[in-house]
Amino acid sequence: MKILDIGEVAAQSGVPPSTLRYYEEQGLVAPIGRKGLRRQYGPQTLLRLTLISMGKAAGFSLPEIARMLGADGRPDLPRDELHARADDLGRQIRRLQLLQDTLRHVADCPAPSHLDCPSFQKLMRQAERTAARGGKHATR
After folding, report:
1. Helix 44-57 crosses helix 6-13 at what angle (to 10 degrees)?
2. 39 pairs with which residues across the strands?
3. Minimal CB count within 10 Å: which of 9, 69, 72, 127?
4. Is DNA-binding among this UniProt entry's keywords (predicted)?
């Protein structure tokens, strides 16, 4: 087993040492020892940091992520919560896709006024329906 010191973990993961120490305080990662004053980590720490990063990107809080990673190092994945978060992300993606489509249309539309453009009006109606439903069923 290759042991990594805090600097190596930081360099390989892109997570600053201060954040590693904070994650340690939060119970997200744990050093396996010290060499002098430098914390030492096992290679599984890099995987945990990737999981933490993915959890944060998905909108989970650090306490939620810590609970999912499990205190004993074994994942405890609340599948219902993961499905709900995936559904939320899907709605957010649809809203962002509609916004992207609208911005591209506005940037490329040759109409003298976007308010008179039928395609722009259609995109605005889609945005209205999406907002009214809370983003649940945006159509393209």
Report:
1. 40
2. 34
3. 72
4. yes
Reported as half-sphere exposure (CB side, CA atoms, 13 A), residue 99 has a value of 8
pLDDT in tens, 9-60: 999 999 999 999 999 999 899 999 988 888 999 989 999 999 999 999 999 9
* Residue tagged 């599948």 (tokens): 79
**In the numeric block, which tokens belong to residue 59?**
């909108």
Cα 62 to Cα 126: distance, rounded to the nearest angstrom: 35
3-state secondary structure the chain: CCCEEHHHHHHHHCCCHHHHHHHHHCCCCCCCEEECCEEEECCHHHHHHHHHHHHHHCCCCHHHHHHHHCCCCCCCCCHHHHHHHHHHHHHHHHHHHHHHHHHHHHHHCCCCCHHHCHHHHHHHHHHHHHHHCCCCCCCC
Q: How far apart are CA 79 and CA 30, in angstroms?
A: 25
